[in-house]
Amino acid sequence: MTENSGLGAIRSMDYVIVLCDDLDRMKRFYIDTFDFRIEEETEHWIAFRVGTLFLGLRSRGRPYDGPNIAETSAGMQLSFRVPPADVDLAYQSLRAKNIDVIEAPTNQDWPHRTLFFSDPEKNILEIFADIHPNDMASEPSGLHLLAGLK
């Protein structure tokens, strides 16, 4: 096997599946929160198109799925990229929908502005934007935006 065949042939990710204990509740959350459009739906499966990726919700129940994650522990983190101004708009939308936010919009020590919350089954959801390196501090200057610098 060469590095360009078998597992070495992987060039992209096509879909992510979130295992669900309550598929209907998770479906409502992802539709109501993100306004995602259902691309495919069966009794045990729902798929949303998110950019070039499918986000699937599937009922937990196959022998290899294992037990659900305890209420106090996240199973995974999903990150969704938006333009910089939309992190704060997303925060306002979440607050208007009474969704508990884990961490309000924050400029991180790497070039991201982030917002964290969770879905009904405790998976961590992140809304993030790439930001200018000058805005990486906890007290962003934003001066480069006013000056038109890139």
Helical run tally: 3
CATH architecture of the largest domain: Roll
The main pleated sheet reads as: 4 strands, mixed
Helix content: 10-25%
What's the level 1 CATH class of the largest domain? Answer: Alpha Beta
Secondary structure class reads alpha/beta
**Whole-angstrom Rg:** 18 Å
β-strand amount: 25-35%
Q: Which sequence of SSEs, written as H and E, runs from N to C? A: EHEEEEHEEEH
Could you name the CATH topology of the largest domain? 2,3-Dihydroxybiphenyl 1,2-Dioxygenase, domain 1
Please tell me the overall pLDDT. 87
**CATH level-4 homologous superfamily of the largest domain:** 2,3-Dihydroxybiphenyl 1,2-Dioxygenase, domain 1
The neighbouring-strand order within the major sheet is 1-4-3-2
Shape: globular
In total, the number of domains comes to: 2
Beta strands, count? 8
**Unreliably modeled segments:** none
Q: Termini separation (Å)?
A: 45 Å
